[in-house]
Structure formats: C-alpha cells, structure tokens
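Let us practice reading a record.
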Amino acid sequence: MEKETVTDEILEETEQESAEDMSQEQTDAQAAENQPDDKDVQTDDKKRFFGKKKDKKDKQIEDLTAQLDDLRKRNLAEFENFRKRTEKEKSTMFDMGAKSVVEKLLPIIDNFERGFAGLSEEQMSDPFVSGMDMVYKQLVKALADMGVEPIEAVGKPFDPNLHNAVMHVEDENLGENTVAQEFQKGYLYHGSVVRHSMVQVAN
C-alpha cells in the first residue's frame, strides 16, 4: 500500500513539472512573438529621426544662410556692373584725351602739306626739304597707328556727318550733291570724327 502511495506522489510531481515546463515554453513563445524584430526597431528609429520636426533654431539658421547667399550674389552682381562701368568710363576718358591730342597735331600736318604743295620737284629734292618730308611721313604714320585716318571727300557724295560745306558750285561733270573740292582735310579717330572736311559742293 505504501509503495502505491509513493508511486502516485512521484507521478503527480512529474506531471506538475511537465505542466510548468509547458507553461513556461508557451510564455516564452508569446514573448518572442511580441518582441519586435531588429529591422522593425531600426525602421521605427528612422521614422522618429527623419520625421522629427525641425528645431526653431535650425529654421532660423536656414533662413539666415539663404539671406546671406542672396546678399553675396547681389554684391557680386553689383561689383561686376561697377567694374564694367568703370572700364567703360576709363575707355571713354582715354578716347577723349587722345582726340584732344590729335586735334592739336592736325594743324601741324596741315602746315606740312601746305608747305609741300607750293614746292617744285626740284625743290623737293633739296636735302632739307627731304628731311622735313620724312618727319611729315613719320608723323602721319604715327597717327595712323593710333587709329587716325583722313576722311575721303573729293568725288564722294556730300555727307553732313563728315563734311562741312562752305561753298557751292555748278559743275555738269559732277553729280548732284557731290564734293567738288576739299579746302581742309578732315580726320577720323577710330571711326569718330575729330575734324570735319571743309569742302565745296557741286550742284
């Protein structure tokens, strides 16, 4: 009788332990199911990080950075315009100064030409006259290198932008409004009139 009692107690303890083990396994399984996966945890972290609202200071920094960038671009544009305007003004002032110098040299050219016009071929062969002729030609070449060129007049249609008409003549051999004679040669400096040609116009 005692053997049966002991056997029953052992069986009950074994069944109780088995039941407890099974209960623990079920609890662990449920816990594992409820435990979030590593990928899910990373995804949630990313959502929390990227979905986080911008701080007020960050927004202010972005606004100030954008304003500084706009100011930098505007200052660069203004400086470029200032540089171009300054270069244009310097070029204009240089041209004005050069034209002023050319105007002062033109009467010298006129005097050379008037002096040579009254000489014969024999007189032109004189060493002194030949020397003056060389000086004249050198001066004319220097002006040409600077961009100075004479205005074409005789036989050309009268152009008030280039010619200054001081006399009128009737000439059947010339077309209407044609320059018949040039009294004083005109000159251009880089295409701009330095001195108008003084001319006689036909018809």
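A brief commentary: The chain has a mean pLDDT of 80.
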